[in-house]
């Protein structure tokens, strides 16, 4: 059992608590400055950090939220343990090591001092140094357990392992699937429906590696993994990896990947109706859940709802229809925001609360949502209006962890 008891003296704890309002106000400025300092002085870490998220500011915002949450809960860090585990899944997928934590701590403290100026007294910096290493120890402990679990599973590994693309399939106008098998032909570890892998893209003429996490889009299989990737409209910098995969990676290409990770997973112990709601490429982890549930729980009622621009953008259309036609307890609905004609799909426009109440017969169900953040915020809001319990709503946001609006 993880020990989250904070070995901090009373004065240090009081100082951390008094800085909570300051972090709420200046947290994002501090973390942006932190990343700038860290990467300028340790450029090799650009091989780890997602440079797209850096440019968008998403990484600094996510770190600010984490630092703020830790400060606000400094006397009861067990409260943030679920959040720590979410981040730890990301860290182990990226192969973050314990020896990197002191480097991060050094530049975080420098950033706090430089942004806050005279307000960051020596006493405050000393208190935050103590608190940082307590929090870091929690992350290191959680991640050690995860690394051990990955390595000790049948077919498991840590770090990156070479996989070959054995099949490349165009699923829609902008989404392509890649099937991967290990180059060493040894067993691969199974995974939980909804988990992801990290790909290390080593792109010609790029100074640093690009690490990207992609959901596994098929039911667990002992022989291969499958990811389904949307081509981003811009090729550089924001879509550099997706365009590389679409344009340069072919059958026979080799990609280093990390072992499956992630905590957005199907609860196979729940036998209530299952409602799967997806937007665009957000269908990828949900496809894994759909394919899995009909194998593992063939009598479970499932409602699969997918929103896309048009039929040309509806990925895996034939596979979903095959499942729905083969299992009478599976009902599928498609919503097109920009249909090619007025008869396409089950609804034109956008998903709304009234329509959800028509197609979902009960709120006593398990709901899984995945898609762009605005999409999930809207659906989550609709489910709240329908009085669906928070504990029954599970969501996955691609990219750094951020809160979803209620």
Give the topology, please.
Elements: H1 10-18, H2 20-41, H3 51-56, H4 58-72, H5 81-94, H6 101-116, H7 122-152, E1 161-170, E2 175-182, E3 196-201, E4 210-215, E5 225-230, H8 240-248, E6 254-257, E7 274-279, H9 283-296, E8 302-308, H10 317-326, E9 330-336, E10 347-348, H11 353-359, E11 366-370, H12 373-385, E12 393-396
Parallel strand pairs: 7-8, 7-11, 8-9, 9-10, 11-12
Antiparallel strand pairs: 1-2, 1-6, 2-5, 3-4
Helix pairs in contact: 1-7, 2-4, 2-6, 5-7, 6-7
In short:
Belongs to the globin family. Two-domain flavohemoproteins subfamily. With 406 residues, this protein is α/β, with parallel strands linked by helices. The protein has twelve helices and twelve strands.
Task: Write up what this structure looks like.
It catalyses: 2 nitric oxide + NADH + 2 O2 = 2 nitrate + NAD(+) + H(+); 2 nitric oxide + NADPH + 2 O2 = 2 nitrate + NADP(+) + H(+). It is an enzyme of class 1 (oxidoreductase). This is Flavohemoprotein. Its cofactor is heme b; FAD. Its EC number is 1.14.12.17. Helix 2 crosses helix 6 and helix 5 crosses helix 7. This protein is an alpha/beta fold and 406 residues long. The protein is built from twelve helices and twelve strands. The strands form three sheets. It has a six-stranded parallel sheet with strand order 10-9-8-7-11-12, sandwiched between helices. The protein has a four-stranded antiparallel sheet with strand order 5-2-1-6. The mean pLDDT is 90. The protein folds into three domains: 143 residues, Globin-like (Orthogonal Bundle); 97 residues, Translation factors (Elongation Factor Tu (Ef-tu), domain 3, Beta Barrel), CATH 2.40.30.10; 123 residues, Nucleotide-binding domain of ferredoxin-NADP reductase (FNR) module (Rossmann fold). It is globular and about 65 Å long. The longest helix has 31 residues.
